[in-house]
Amino acid sequence: MLIDWFTVVAQIVNFLILIWLLKRFLYGPILRAVDAREAAVAARVRDAEAAREEAKARSDELRREREAFEDERSVLMERARTEVEAWRERAEERVRGEVEARRVRWLEALDSERAEFERALAERVATEVLAVSRRALSDLGDSALDERIASAFLREVRAATDAHAAGAVRVGTGTEVGASARTMVDQGLREVFPKVTDVAFVPVPELGLGMRLETGDTRLCWTLDGYLDGLEERVLRTLSAVSRPKEARRERE
Fold it and tell me: Which InterPro entries match (predicted)?
């Protein structure tokens, strides 16, 4: 078999030319397109990775913000609960204080009114008792009572050591005085005041049960009203002294 070397060489040259042409016009663009595609894919992968990282970072940031918000919300809620509780306690304390203050004022007013009522009642009772005593003694006036009045009057005169009388004197009487009482007063005055020459008895209704000596600048008097007035004053003073410790004790309570 004969080999046509010219044909072989031509075929080889054609094959080499074909390879060069393929490499020049086909493989090069394809490889460049593949490289460009790979670069684009790599760029997209990088972009996707960057986007994923950014999304993850944003997610982490949002999670931290949410956690911070939850923490802040919890703090604010706790603060709000604390403030509401403190306000409620202050309001309750203020209301309790106002109620207690009103109760204390009411009790003080009640105690004051009660003390005033007790004082007024005691004074009224004492006044009525003394008034009844005056009326009873006035209604029971007799000769024996006249002598007792005369005796009390003379004790008042004898007790007045700085008094003096002489000449004619007048003795005022609030009620009718019997002869024995007149004699007792006459003798008693002459004993106390030896210079007395005459004793005249004159009615003085406003004296009530009592007698009054009048001579010059000397005036000595004893009346049942004066005695009862003194007794009334002592009774009222005693009642006032008794009521003061009660009021002080209520104030301490």
Answer: ATP_synth_b/b'su_bac/chlpt (IPR002146), ATP_synthase_B_chain (IPR050059)
